[in-house]
What we know:
This protein has three domains: about 15-145, Rossmann fold; about 155-295, Reverse transcriptase/Diguanylate cyclase domain (Alpha-Beta Plaits); about 320-565, Alpha-Beta Barrel (TIM Barrel), CATH 3.20.20.450. α4 (about 100-105) links the parallel β4 (about 90-95) and β5 (about 110-115). The radius of gyration is 37 Å and the shape is elongated. α2 (about 45-55) packs parallel to α3, α8 (about 190-210) packs across α9 (about 235-245) and α13 (about 370-390) packs parallel to α14. It is about 45% helix and about 20% strand. By secondary structure, the chain is of the alpha/beta class. It has helices at about 20-30, 45-55, 70-80, 100-105, 120-145, 155-165, 180-190, 190-210, 235-245, 270-280, 295-315, 355-365, 370-390, 410-420, 435-440, 440-455, 470-475, 485-490, 500-510, 525-535, 550-565; strands at about 15-20, 35-40, 60-65, 90-95, 110-115, 170-180, 215-220, 225-230, 255-260, 290, 320-330, 335-350, 350-355, 395-400, 430-435, 460-465, 480-485, 515-520, 535-540. It has 21 helices and 19 strands.
Amino acid sequence: MTRSTDRFIDNKRHILVADDEMINREMLANILGDEYYVLMAEDGEQAYDIISHNRNTLSLILLDLKMPKLTGLELLSRVKEDPDIKGIPVIVLTSDQDSEVESLGLGAYDFIPKPYPQPDVIKARISRSIELAEDRQIITATEKDTLTGLFTSEYFYRYGEQFDKFHPLADTDAVCLDVKHFHVINERFGSAKGDEILKRIAGCLKSTFTDEECVICRMAADIFLIYCVHRDDYGHIADMISESCEDMPTSVKIRIGVYYSCDKKLDLRARIARAKIASNKIHNNYMISVGEYDETLMDNELFTEQLVDEFPKAIEEKQFQVFFQPKYDIRGDRPVLSSAEALVRWFHPTLGTISPGKFIPLFEEDGLISQLDEYIWRSAAKQIADWKARLGISVPVSVNLSRAEMYNPDLVGIFEKITTDTGITTKDILLEITESAYVRDADQIVDRVKSLREHGFFIEMDDFGSGYSSLNMISELPIDALKLDMMFIRTAFDKQNDTRMISIVIDIANYLEVPVIAEGVETEEQYLALKELGCAIIQGYYFSKPVTAGEFEKFLIERRERDKN
């Protein structure tokens, strides 16, 4: 028995000749010895032993069907049932044509008849079989995801297109499936737990869909793509996957986007893209596990892409304009203009006025918000400086800081440069930071806010009442004013007209020795009630909507005339 542990000896591939006739073995060894390293076995059991010990080096098996101890057909069957060796190609040596069909059924690649044909014919058939087997191994290694055993994305699209060719009339769905907040699971419990969840998802999908009705892949991380015959039970599939992970240390919530009854005029990538859009639609909705694509989603997707693409040009052409909404101190006998808030508006040359509610969340998601923020800060600072120079008066203007800005280690430097460049002071520009920023990353945000205050900047906690910070936390936060969330005001003055929560917040602010600012005040009833409760400053349509810098000047001139008197 000859064995080897090297893939190649003298750059030769290994071949096993299994034949009980010595003359046949020697004849093949003489024919093949110049090009291949030949191992030989005289019975089926010996052949199986050699195959097992050389599973990583054998390139081909030449197998006689009539052998003692283990027949060729029995050995072939055993080889194809063993996952470690079933990929080794087998060429059957036989003079029995009736055995050819059975051998093919068991996985034989080819036949060499007895008596043997010309050596060149034998070599050609061996070379072709080895080449086909190696090509198949390369394809197998690249077409399947090693973790889940599902197709990779490249082969998913290839086989999906073939699926359409063989099922031209089938009503099909494109599906995108992923795990909600999968990155958090990986961070909290480790990648091993994450991998186990991915394997369970793959197992559920394999058990749910048959190969005849679908193509499935793991595209990346926790994203799975499915192209299948139309069905209506995706919600059940999401629940089934979640239930299969009930023993995990955290609940596993599945999100599925479906493009039902695909338009096959679109290529498969376009169909899958629509499923992804449907999935994104329910990104932050824990109550819904399945999102359905419709054309309005694509319109929105194209619209948002256009906004992102045209952002640099909009900055360059100053399409963004800063509006100002006055804030009034209502603690005296008459309301007095005390400050303003800078609010941005986008005047697009072809799309018209675009609501901040559409572009600000988009820019926060795409990382453009920092550039827009600084544009607003500088624009507001320049306007403050202009009012000081022309009118001899100004009021402080508050600007919003997104949560992303609070992670910028150079934030203090940016504001110091803005004030230096424009000639305004730190008292002229107020900084609004949302309550949710304090709550999510308290220590880091608090350190940044302390640094800003140490450099003379005034800090307002914006949207108070929406972030659910604890009373103990509030008492430790470095702030100079509390600004009530607009919905807080609307809720308080609904049909029940219950302002007790506002009273509690004002008591908290009094304890902290900071004023309360109420935004979204629209009626005289609200104004009078807030004044009676002790609210310091109000902002809203009761006094004015946000206006242009030119329109805001009338409020400054009115304040200047009042101060003279």
